[in-house]
Structure formats: C-alpha cells, structure tokens
Amino acid sequence: MTKPISPKTHRQEAPKLPLTPRRKALLARVHALAKELGLEGDGYRLVLRALTGKPSCALMDEEELYEAALGLEALRQEREDNSAQAPGLCRQALPASRCAKLRPRS
Predict the structure, then answer these.
(1) Could you report the per-residue pLDDT of 23-45, keeping only the tens digit for each?
(2) Which of 37, 67, 75, 98 is most exposed by smallest CB count within 10 Å?
(3) Within 13 Å, how many C-alpha atoms sit on residue 17's CB side?
(4) How many Å apart are CA 101 and CA 106, to the nearest integer?
(5) Radius of gyration of the chain measured on its C-alpha atoms
(6) Sign of the alpha-carbon torsion through 9, 12, 18, 22
(7) DSSP string, 38-68
(8) What is the residue-wise DSSP string for the chain?
(9) How many CB atoms lie within 10 A of CB 65?
(10) 49-71 pLDDT per residue, tens
C-alpha cells in the first residue's frame, strides 16, 4: 500500500517573462527601494500586493513593476516628508537636548 501524495499548495507559478534591460532595471529599483524602506518578508509582499495586486516581482510584468516602483517612491517621499516635519514637532514637546538626539542624521 502506497502513501497518498499530498496536494501541492496553490502557489501561483511565476510566468517566464523575458529579462529585458528595462525589466532588470525595474526589478533592481523595486528591491533597492524596499531595502531602503526596511521592507522584508510578509510586509514586503503585503505592500506589493496593495500596489499591484501581486505579492511578488516575479509575477509582475514591466508595467506592474513600474507601478510598484512608483508606489515605493511615494512611500519613501512620504517618510522623508514626515521626518522633515518631526524636528519642529519635537521642539514643541521636548527639551532641546533630547530633540537633537531624535533628529534624523543627514
């Protein structure tokens, strides 16, 4: 008597998309931005899914990679804008000695 084969999980198979120079550049940009933002693992996949509907760059065509890069650029810009506002807010709530420690380094 043989053991039944367990069913494979329903993971989406990555299509074999050609690695054009544009696709390669977009993949590099998306991964660099994700690293800069500190995204990894499930958080990274959730952000990609929110931006493109797909949890992995391997599943995206060039247009979707472009949308992911634009979305990650927007997140980075929003983070920079929020950190630029923080020193002013900091000065109002904390003494100057503590505020300098919290200011982002340039």
Answers:
(1) 999 999 999 999 999 999 999 99
(2) 98
(3) 19
(4) 13
(5) 20
(6) negative
(7) T--HHHHHHHHHHHHS-S-GGG--HHHHHHH
(8) -PPPPPPPP-PPPPP-----HHHHHHHHHHHHHHHHHT--HHHHHHHHHHHHS-S-GGG--HHHHHHHHHHHHHHHHHHHHHHHHHHHHHHHHS-HHHHHHHSPP-
(9) 22
(10) 999 999 999 999 999 999 999 99
Residue carrying structure tokens 């977009």: 26
Residue 54 tokens read as 């797909």
Q: Can you read off the two tokens belonging to residue 35?
A: 């690293």
**Both tokens assigned to 24:** 């390669």
